[in-house]
Amino acid sequence: MSLIKLYDHELSGNCYKVRLLLSQLPKEYEAIKIDVFKGQNKEVFFKNINPAMKIPVIDDSGVIVNESNAILLYLSEKYNKNFLLDSVESRAKIYSWLLFNKTSVDPFLAKSRAIKKFFPEDKQDNNELKMLQKEGNKSLLIIDEYLKDNDFLSDGYSIADISMYPYIKLSYEGEIFLDKYKNILEWIKRVEEIKDFIPMY
To answer: How far apart are CA 140 and CA 28, in angstroms?
Structure first.
């Protein structure tokens, strides 16, 4: 059986989500680095794999899946449904958080991180950064309130937690700090204690 190919970059939080799930499934894979900083994601060979020119992408014996949260859903559906939990009610929570992640968390936390970590100082728009930080903090407050009475984002550890973890964990790199979000900090510890957890770096 051929290995899953993961088109990857070690600094991408979205790629890390996929690596973490693959580690915990567990499922062997081949990582193929796409250096987005050198524009490899815009080369013809990769555009043929994903016309949106974004990573991560997986190739599972010819099944191509892009978008990190779609990949999490696909992999857990095919290889280990424990990450989707048992009941439709639990899965409803997972689906809701996966979509909230992509509309209200990653767009703000990941872009803040990108501005501060990867943009030259003369290319950093402070007004944009402040807006992103403000909106990111609004979403973190919602998550923190939820975690006051819940150990994980659904009724047990799931791909919802995997999807949220990287950019929340790395939010300090975009000067969004978690000190006031005590429930999130406790949740981060719980996520990192799960079997076969791997750090991003």
So the answer is: 33
pLDDT for 171-187, tens place per residue? Answer: 999 999 999 999 999 99
Handedness of CA 56, 158, 166, 69 (dihedral sign): positive
* Backbone phi and psi for residue 180, each to the nearest 5 degrees, phi listed first: -85, -5
Cα 135 → chain centroid:
18
Q: How far apart are CA 110 and CA 80, in angstroms?
A: 28
Residues 76 and 20: their CA atoms lie apart, in Å, by 12
Look up residue 201 and give its two tokens: 């770096």
94-110 confidence digits (pLDDT tens): 999 999 999 999 999 99
> Hey, is 101 helix, strand or coil?
helix
How far CA 88 is from CA of 40, 70, 80, 91, 95, in Å, comes to 40, 18, 16, 5, 10
In whole angstroms, what is the distance from residue 85 CA to residue 177 CA? 31
pTM of the complete model beyond 0.90: yes
Domains and CATH numbers, the chain: 4-81 (3.40.30.10), 85-192 (1.20.1050.10)
Separation of alpha carbons 120 and 101, rounded Å: 27
